[in-house]
Amino acid sequence: MTQPNGAAVAAHRAVGFDVDGVLGASEHLGERRWSRFAAARGRTWTAQQTRQVQGMSAPEWSAFLAGFSVAEESAAAAERLVVDDMIGALHGGEIELLPGAERMITEVAARAPIALASSAPRRLIDAVLDRHGLTEFFAATVSSAEVPRGKPSPDVYREAARRLAQDPQACLAVEDSSNGLRAAAAAAMTVVAIPSPDYPPAEDALAAAGFVAADLDEVRLHLLDSLSAAVAG
Q: Is 145 strand, coil or helix?
């Protein structure tokens, strides 16, 4: 684990978490389903398109997907098809929690209020938390579909802080992707990065993090240390 410039751990009073790449791994499933939707309409979806839509809200990526695929379906219909497929994958056991995620959430939630700030649509957020028994631990959950702009804009993190009744500067945010890191930093939160091995974040996005961890155990320990400082203060 690293902490740039040897900075001291700051006191914080709440934590915001992303879902995909932080709690569970489903980004590859989304990419597979976007690719399948496009292929059925004679288009080839590549890693370039995936990078373009990472962090977008469901209305944003579904509009991109429908336009890219020259689909007869509306963006809303494209979103419904993909999300239905994702929820089916969840119930089929294809979206499991990452090692250390459950312990991280339960221990951090016992110390301070936590929120979820995700690009996933509301239906998928609720289904993932319910399936893995995590709903009760979150004081607030926000989908970027519920704010004006998706990541990398800061809207979803600012809304999460508002629902927690916290100043964003008093919050930590745990993120893995380029646009997620940028969004949390733009919201003035202190960013804890756990870089995605499958979709490594850009150097400029990673540079905005106050702490970079190798796994969720390191994330958990850093969050608990930061929140302990807040309690002691």
A: helix
- Sequence ranges of the domains in the chain: 4-25+97-232, 27-91
Determine the Cα–Cα distance for residues 27 and 233; give it in Å rounded to an integer: 38
Between the CA of residue 194 and those of 92, 109, 112, 158, 218, what are the distances in Å?
26, 19, 20, 21, 9
**pTM score above 0.70:** yes
Would you report the helix, strand and coil content of the chain in percent, each value rounded to 5? 50, 10, 35
Q: Is 200 helix (H, G, I), strand (E, B) or coil?
A: coil
Distance between CA atoms of residues 72 and 74, nearest Å:
7
Of the options 2.60.120.200, 3.40.50.720, 3.30.365.10, 3.40.50.1000, the CATH number for the domain spanning 4-25+97-232: 3.40.50.1000
Per-residue model confidence as pLDDT tens digits over 57-82? 899 999 999 999 999 999 999 999 99
Spatial separation of the C-alpha atoms in residues 51 and 12, rounded to whole Å: 32
User: Residue 176 phi/psi, 5° resolution?
Assistant: -125, -25
